[in-house]
Design a protein that fits this description.
Length: 419
C-alpha cells in the first residue's frame, strides 16, 4: 500500500519512516502566520501564478513536512497528482501548518492568509481551487465559509472546493486505543525511554484538533465517550458561518466504498492482547453495539481497570478510509500501534493482531449521514444523501488519504471541467 498524503501518527510513532526523499525545491516559499505555503508553478505557466490550486495538509503531530507531503502526493507509486495538475496548466500550492494539532479555526486563519496571498500573486482572473486532505478539508471548508461571511475578508474568488477523505461528520479513534494510550502514559509516562513517546501520543489524542475531529473522545481512562467540548464549539463556529462555502462547487472523495460493504473487521472481538513484564492479560476489543467492555488494562501487580462503552455503533469494521501507518515493518494501523507499544514496554503480544480499523467512515467523507447511526454506516450511499455537489467513493476500503489514480484523476478532471 502506498504512503498516504497525511500520516496521522507522524514521526513520533515507533517504527515509522524517519525521512522521505527530498522534495524538489519549490519555486516560491511563502511564510505565513501559523504556517508555510510551497509553490510549484506549472511548466506551462513560465513561473507565473495563473491557475492556483491550494492543497491543505491535515492532522498529525508537529509541523507540516514538505518531503512527506510531496511523497504522498507525487511519489506514491500509483498516481502523480502534482504532475497531472501541472499538465492541466494548474499551479500547485501546498499549504502546511506550524502546528497540525492546533485548532481547526486557528489553522483556518493561515489558510485565509494563503488564499489572500494567492489572489495577490495571481496573474489574470482565473478562479482558485481550494481544498485539503483529511482535516485539511475541514480547515479549508471553514476558511472559505468564513471569508463569505466576514466583511473584513476579501472575496475568495474560488470556484471549486474539494476534500479528500475528510471527516465532515467526524472521525473514529477507537475508545479502547484512546484508553490504553492514556493508561500507559499514566503508568509509564515518566520512564526514561518510553515516557516521552507515550506522552506524545496521549497529547496527540488530547490536542485541540483531535478533540474537534473525533466523534467520540475520552481525555483520560474512566471518562464516558462523548463529543469533546472543543468539537461542540467547532461545530457551532462552523454553523455560524453557514456550514459550507456557498458560492463554490463542492466535491469530495472517500477512501472507502459507497456500497455499504465493510472492511472485514468483526465487532466485539479481541483485536490485541498481551502479557508480560509490565502488563498482565491486557487486551483491547473492537467496538460493538450495546454495552461492552472494550478494554481490560492491568499493570503487573495492580488491579484491573475495565473500559466500558454503551450505545456506540460497530464502527471498526465500517466502510471507509482505514487507519494506517506507513512503516518499513508494515502497517501498524490503530490496534497495531497498541500492539507495538505493548511490546516496547516489555510484553509479549499474542499473534494475529487485528492491526487496523475504520478511521474516516465513507458517509463522513462525503457528508452523507450520521456516523452514530449503525444503519447509515453500512448503508449504500446515494447522491441525494450527500451535502456535496459531486463525490466519488473508492472501489475498495483503503488507507486514509492514499492517493490513487481512481480518486486523484477524478479530482483533476473535475478541476479541469470547472474552468
Amino acid at each position: 500500500m502506498s504512503a498516504p498524503v497525511v500520516d496521522v501518527w507522524g514521526p513520533v510513532a515507533p517504527g515509522a519512516r524517519s525521512s522521505y526523499p527530498a522534495a524538489p525545491e519549490p519555486h516560491e516559499t511563502w511564510n505565513l502566520a501559523g504556517g508555510k505555503a510551497w509553490v510549484y508553478y506549472s511548466p506551462l505557466n513560465r513561473r507565473q501564478l495563473i491557475r492556483p490550486v491550494i492543497l491543505s495538509d491535515g492532522f498529525s503531530g508537529g509541523s507540516s513536512d514538505l518531503d512527506q507531503l510531496f511523497h504522498g502526493l507525487e511519489e506514491n507509486g500509483d498516481y502523480r497528482f502534482i504532475s497531472e495538475l501541472h499538465a492541466s496548466g494548474r499551479d500547485v500550492i501546498i499549504l502546511g501548518y506550524d502546528d497540525r494539532t492546533a485548532s481547526i479555526t486557528d489553522n483556518a486563519d493561515t489558510a485565509i492568509e494563503c488564499i489572500r496571498r494567492a489572489l495577490s500573486e495571481r496573474v489574470g482572473q482565473a478562479k482558485l481551487v481550494v481544498g485539503g486532505f483529511s482535516m485539511g478539508g475541514l480547515v479549508t471548508r471553514y476558511a472559505l465559509a468564513r471569508m463569505e461571511q466576514d466583511p473584513a475578508c476579501p472575496d475568495h474568488e474560488t470556484s471549486l472546493y474539494f476534500s479528500y477523505d475528510t471527516p465532515h461528520q467526524g472521525g473514529w479513534l477507537p475508545i479502547a486505543l484512546q484508553a490504553f494510550t492514556h493508561y500507559a502514559t499514566d503508568k509509564w509516562g515518566d520512564a526514561p525511554l518510553m515516557g516521552p513517546v507515550l506522552r506524545q501520543f496521549s497529547g496527540l489524542l488530547n490536542s485541540p484538533a483531535a478533540k474537534q475531529m473525533a466523534r467520540w473522545h475520552i481525555e483520560k481512562v474512566g471518562d464516558t465517550p462523548a463529543q469533546a467540548p472543543e468539537r461542540t464549539a467547532f461545530l457551532k463556529a462552523l454553523d455560524e458561518v453557514g456550514g459550507w462555502p456557498r458560492s463554490v462547487r463542492r466535491i469530495g472523495v472517500a477512501n472507502g466504498v459507497d456500497t455499504g460493504t465493510g472492511n472485514g473487521v468483526k465487532a466485539g472481538v479481541i483485536a490485541v492482547r498481551c502479557d508480560g513484564e509490565t502488563l498482565h492479560d491486557t487486551w483491547l476489543k473492537t467496538q460493538a453495539k450495546g454495552d461492552q467492555v472494550v478494554a481490560k488494562l492491568q499493570k503487573t501487580g495492580e488491579g484491573v481497570t475495565e473500559v466500558r462503552t454503551s450505545g456506540l455503533p460497530d464502527i471498526d469494521g465500517a466502510p471507509g478510509g482505514l487507519f494506517v501507518l506507513p512503516s518499513p515493518a508494515g502497517d501498524t494501523g490503530s490496534f497495531g500501534l497498541a500492539a507495538l507499544l505493548m511490546a516496547l514496554i516489555g510484553n509479549e503480544v499474542d499473534p494475529d493482531v487485528i492491526t487496523t480499523s475504520c478511521f474516516i467512515p465513507s458517509i463522513s467523507a462525503v457528508d452523507a449521514g450520521d456516523i452514530n447511526d449503525p444503519k447509515a454506516l453500512y448503508r449504500a450511499i446515494t447522491p441525494d444523501r450527500s451535502a456535496l455537489d459531486a463525490y466519488l467513493c473508492a472501489s475498495r476500503n483503503e488507507g486514509h488519504t492514499t492517493m490513487t489514480e481512481e480518486l486523484g484523476a477524478w479530482i483533476v478532471n473535475e478541476i479541469v471541467a470547472q474552468s
